[in-house]
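Discussion board: Methods & Data

I've been asked by a reviewer to show the raw model output for two of the constructs in my manuscript, not just the figures. I'm not sure how much to include, so I'm pasting the format here to get opinions. Each protein appears as its amino acid sequence followed by a line of discrete structure tokens. Is this the kind of thing reviewers expect to see in a supplement, or should I convert it first? Here is construct A:
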Amino acid sequence: MTTQLGTVAVGYDGSADSETALRWAAALCASVGARLKIVHAVGLLEESGLSVAAPPAPERALEVAAEAGLEPGRMEWLALDGPPADALLRTTEAPHAVDLLVVGTRGTAKHAGVIVGSTSLGVAERTAVPLVIVPTAR
């Protein structure tokens, strides 16, 4: 079976692990001519300005993707409402309908002893499209 890879979605929260996943996804897209959707989930605290952490800068994400060799016209920043796993899973449906999801091993809420974060696990449990969990950069 041959599958055409047209569009990839990658989760991005500004963490080192999400940046590693973004680099991997952007390099893949550059090598096969696919489009990349960089997905940031906007929660209620961030939306209301009550979040302690600053939201990730879209410019940084687009810069990382460009450094990995992806043309600017092949990448798109998406800020979607809701929990990260839900936001990523919504990209597998219309109007986005991505062919592949990419996430880092863990995001900003790192807990000692946890190998795979809750977002990665939540996406893996419910996705209908292939998923790549990019290991932590060492």
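Construct B, same format:
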Amino acid sequence: MATRSRRTDSEEARRAAAAAQIRQFPDPVLKQPARVVEAFDDDLAALAERMLELMDDAHGAGLAAPQIGLLRRLFVYRPPETEEPRVLVNPRLVEASAERAVEGEGCLSLDVLLSAGHQVPVERHERVRLHAVDVAGAPFELDLAGHEARIVQHELDHLDGVLILDRAERAARIDAMRLLRQAIDAEL
């Protein structure tokens, strides 16, 4: 998931360098489900740190391992109310509210849409509970609401090979796909 704000030239250069490392639609890895993480070692901790740096440099709210080409059930995100980022390994949704809301979302793997200032309206649960483990393998549980719940659901979708385009209503998907096709055609 991505955020937008005014950036300096150096911030924009870092954002562009980070974006170049993030898989873009229609890369097939984005449609594949990720595998459960089994090894909790220094490599996993280093991967989580690398993902946090990429997320921050790309000005994203979250980043899932498949977005950098690794089919592992791992994502990072920065809660909107704090400065402290979170790393979730093998997360799973265990409860979701009946209340749902539609809001526009961006995605670092749909950078063409972000660059155009285009968000895709997606319906999500207002509140969720999930179980996960940290990079050392210690289990924890999170009860989340509002925008933070939306970020986590977006990143969970990435672990299942689901994009916001798959969640959007037909008209919104057609509109987003038109913009994506125009960008792809312009590159050819």
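Answer (T.O., handling editor elsewhere):
This is acceptable in a supplement if you add a one-line summary per construct. For B, something like: Helices lie at 9-19, 42-57, 111-115, 146-159, 164-167, 170-187.
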